[in-house]
Structure formats: structure tokens, C-alpha cells
Amino acid sequence: MGRWFSLSRTTLSHGLIVFALLVTAALLVRHQILYTNMLQEKAVSLDYYIDGGTLKPFAYRVLIPQTLRAIDAVTPPSMVPVLDRWAQRIAKRGSLRGDIPQAGQNIIRSGPENRYPRAIFWLAVLQFVCLIGYALVGSSLYASLFPGTRWRLLSAPFLLVLLLPIVADGFGHIYDFSVLFLFACLLRAMASERHILYLLIFTVSCFNKETTIFVSLAYAAVFFGRLPISRYAFMLAAQVAIFMVIYFSLRASFADNPGVDMAVWVGHQLGYYLRRPPVFYLEAAVVAFVLSFRWNEKPEFLRRAMVMVLPHLILTIYAAMPGELRNSYESIPLLSMLVLRNAEFISKQWWTRSA
Questions:
Q1: pTM of the model
Q2: Domain boundaries, the chain
Q3: Are the C-beta atoms of 236 and 217 separated by less than 8 Å?
Q4: Between 78 and 216, where is the model more confident?
């Protein structure tokens, strides 16, 4: 009887964790689709992405648009009107942001002409899959970095919960969640020293976003002094070569698109942060404390890989729109490992003292 009760309790707890994971992922996708600017700006609409006419540098981020295009090409014609109706039914629940020119409409569309309404449905599916993949790969990464953890299962939904404030900020792009998934996969491949797999994922990720090159800095730091010099040099050279070939090929392909390769926002950034209230800096100090708490006890892998965060932060200040929390997605998989470990430690101390 006792064993049956123990099994039932374990099954129930696992079921609740899976339920929390699925619900959190669904909520994130719902908010990203309906309540951010992702599908509300004409120049970066799904129609323009899929047809290849979106602004630079967004045009270079082809993985999700081309995946949507491939899905649309193989969708049976009989399913197209059904999927269009589903997508439009979902989209009518959206609420447009007041600072977007299309405000006043009450429907999310794939673009000005609404050429691919069904793409909204497939985009939601892809984003859901990316979030679940990110949570599972991130959970595996956490368990590999902290073998004695008791949060192996709990870490998966926890990773998604950490994204709620970012998505609630109201800004998004169609490739955001694939950034999370692919960067987590790159870190996991590094942690398990699966170098060929790492290069394959790196190649795919370069088609998703050019900031993939930041992971090369983490790779260089993690394996410095740990690989034979010839292999170390080959791996770094391979990453640079892959990135250069893909990036400049995409630049050539979309050379006639409107926009610029990199917008400069540093002046706006400085003004934005100078206008922040004192509570903003207090919150930033709390975040910095949480991330650095018991720093010396963190695995060497994490401490070395953190080298990628600094150039990412510099690029964010220089070339990202002020106030968009989503600009941190490249660093989130790495930073979340620190938050998870510190949360587990604090909860363990609290339960020990309460017992």
C-alpha cells in the first residue's frame, strides 16, 4: 500500500510538472502572438517575411520564415481554408498596442494584404515547439551542470516562468523563441563536448540570427586549454567560416531590401536609462546580486561561458531599441542556469530551517 501511494504521488507530481510546462508554454505563445508588436508592424509582417521583402537586418533571419514557407508549400489545398479560419478566429482575440500605427483595428493579420493567415497558426505551433524544446534542453543542461540537483524536472517549467516578464513587456519577433531553443542546444552540445553536433546546430542557428557568433566566444573560453591546439584552432576557424559564409550570403541575397544592416540606438539608450526612476536601478541591483550569488561555487563551464554576455550587452546598448527586454534572449539560457541554481539553494536552505 505504501509503495502504491508513493508511486501515485510521484506520478501526480510528474503530471503536474508536465501540465505546468504545457500551460506556461501555451500562455507565452498566446501572449506573443496576440499581445506583442510581433504581428502588428507592416514592415516586419509575416507576409513580408515569407515573401522575402521585410526590412534589413530582419530579412537575414530566414530560418523561421523559410520554415513557414516550406510548411505552406506542402499544406494540402483542402486544409488551407480550414487553417485560415482557425488562424483568423484566434487572431480576432488580439489586442493591438497603442503605439503601433495599426492601432484601432481589432484583428491580428499576417500582413497588410493578409496573404498568409494560416501562417499565424503554424507560427504558433513552431513557437510552442521551440519553447518546449528550450525547456527540455535547458533542464538537461541544468542537470548536467549540477548532477546532484533535485530540480531536474521542476527546472523545465521554471525556465519558461522566467520568460513571463520578458514576453509581458509587449515586444517580440517571430524568431525569438527559436533563439532560446538553439542557444540552449548549443550550450548543451558544448557541455557534453559533442563538437560535431555543436557545429551542425551552430550552422542552423546562423540562419536564425546573426548573434549566434556570440556563442563562439563562449566556446573559445570553455575549451581554452582543454582541447589540443590544432583541434581548438580548427573549431574556432570553422565557426568563423560558417558564420561569414552564411551572413554575407544572406546580405547579398537581400541587398535590395529596404532598411539598414545595423541601426544605431546608443543615443536613445543613454537617454532612456538616464530617465529611469530609482526603483529601476534597485531592481537591476537585485538581478545582479541574484546572478552573482555564490559565484565561485558555480561550475567552471558556466563561469567561462559567461564571457559571451558582455559583447551581447554592448551590442544591445549600441544597436537595440531601448527598453526591449527581448534583446536579452541570447543570454537568457545561460543566465537562467545561475538563477535556477540560486533559487534551488535558497529553497533548500529555507526548507532546512523550517524543518
A1: 0.92
A2: 2-354
A3: no
A4: 216
Q: How many percent of the chain have pLDDT more than 70? A: 92
Q: pLDDT by residue (tens digit) across 128-160?
A: 999 999 999 999 999 999 998 888 889 999 999
For residues 76 and 70, give the distance between their C-alpha atoms in angstroms, rounded to a whole number: 12
Q: Which residue type, as a one-letter code, is found at position 279? A: V
Helix (H) or strand (E) segment spanning residue 20: helix 2-34
| Angle subtended by helix axes 195-208 and 213-222, to nearest 10 | 160
DSSP of 52-119: T-PPBTGGG--HHHHHHHHHHHHS-GGGHHHHHHHHHHHHTT----TTSTTBTB----SSTT---HHH
pLDDT digits (tens, 9 = 90+) for 317-328: 888 888 888 999
Residue 354 Ramachandran class (φ > 0 left, ψ -120 to 50 alpha, else beta): alpha
Euclidean distance between CA atoms 206 and 243, whole angstroms: 6
Output the nine-digit C-alpha cell for 159.
525556465
Task: Check if the beta carbon of residue 215 is closer than 8 Å to that of residue 202.
Answer: yes
